[in-house]
Design goal:
Blueprint: H1 2-28, E1 39-43, H2 50-66, E2 70-74, H3 81-88, E3 96-101, H4 107-110, E4 122-130, E5 133-137, H5 146-155, E6 161-164, H6 170-182, E7 187-190, H7 194-202, E8 208-212, H8 213-221, E9 226-230, E10 258-264, H9 269-284, H10 286-294, E11 298-299, H11 304-325
Parallel strand pairs: 1-2, 1-3, 6-7, 6-8
Antiparallel strand pairs: 3-10, 4-10, 4-11, 5-8, 5-9
Helix pairs in contact: 2-9, 6-11
Length: 330
């Protein structure tokens, strides 16, 4: 009987200690008081690109939501792999995040020796927005419409070129889906980012470019660029008079360009969940939706699980396109 009382007393002491220590340990955890310092968004493209514009819009609102400053670091190059590798290898504490385009799922197919594992070294927090691409050209090219462009390219194979914001970028994949579906050949000219590609297209040195509407719209309105078609399954509200590539007879050319937020894979789940919760709130707010609508984009909130599934499925489907189109890293 005495032994049973001693065991009961010991158990009660243990429970009491646990109740005391658990909050103490949690309080000392880096997760408990996250965030307590500046958060950095690493963007793989230049300032002014569609991905950068969305990243800055989210950063501004997340700063208010979390009470900590969110800054942008633009790190373009190698189709976004330099930035992705930096984040994948960074401390998984929630303070270094990646805001990438859908070009992220292309890189495993065109860079066989990536220094990081796309599916296992980074975890998707949520997509932020989808941005329609629009095929633009200099008015000096004199294209009547998209069918005219296709006819001219078919008449002189390999005499034309098209730009992208980098090999494997979302602008490049959109162009390749269109090119393969239209049955045309042309020379791919990759740039460091969208602004550079737009400049060269306006100057007539590039024959066409699938640019994010968010970046090209002001130039289209000013008459500096001609919009021939959008690459999305349906027309854009910002360019309602511009047909889709599918509407012009190029079946199978549709492409969704998304921008998403990712973190190092070992980032604590409570931090990932907090980020998802706060960012999804921002994406669902009427004020932010109006902000995206003004730049031709649409919010694209998802759970981390759903985003992970999207990344996996697109990694597999884009690999097939890369093989068909013969896309290779420069």
């Amino acid at each position: 009987m005495k032994r049973r009382n001693v065991l009961a007393l010991s158990l009660n002491v243990l429970i009491g200690l646990t109740a005391t220590l658990v909050p103490s340990v949690w309080a000392q955890s880096p997760v408990a008081d996250w965030p307590k310092q500046t958060i950095k968004f690493v963007v793989p493209f230049t300032a002014g690109s569609g991905t950068d514009i969305v990243a800055r819009a989210v950063a501004e609102r997340l700063t208010s939501a979390l009470g900590q400053t969110v800054v942008i670091e633009n790190k373009p190059g190698a189709g976004g792999t330099i930035a992705a590798n930096q984040v994948a290898k960074s401390n998984p504490d929630g303070y270094t995040l990646l805001v990438h385009s859908s070009g992220h799922v292309v890189n495993p197919a065109i860079y066989p020796n990536l220094p990081y594992d796309t599916l296992n070294d980074l975890i998707g927090i949520t997509p932020l927005a989808s941005l329609p691409n629009v095929l633009v050209a200099s008015p000096s090219k004199g294209y009547k419409d998209l069918k005219d462009l296709i006819a001219k390219v078919k008449d002189k194979p390999d005499a034309f070129n098209y730009a992208s914001a980098g090999t494997g970028s979302a602008t490049h994949i959109n162009a390749e889906k269109f090119r393969v579906a239209a049955g045309i050949t042309a020379t791919h000219v990759p740039f460091r980012g969208t602004p550079e590609a737009l400049t060269e297209t306006m100057g007539g040195r590039i024959d066409w470019f699938f640019a994010p509407i968010v970046s090209a719209l002001p130039l289209i309105k000013d008459g500096k660029l001609q919009a021939l078609a959008v690459g999305t399954p349906k027309r854009s509200d910002d360019l309602p008079q511009v047909p889709t590539t599918a509407e012009t007879g190029v079946a199978g050319s549709e492409y969704t360009f998304w921008v998403g937020m990712l973190a190092p894979a070992k980032t604590p789940k409570p931090v990932v969940d907090r980020l998802n919760t706060e960012v999804v709130k921002i994406l669902n707010s009427k004020e932010f939706q109006a902000r995206l609508d003004a730049i031709g984009a649409s919010p694209m909130p998802m759970s981390t699980t759903a985003f992970g599934g999207l990344i996996k499925s697109e990694t597999e489907s884009i690999a097939k396109l890369v093989q068909t189109a013969g896309i290779k890293a420069n």
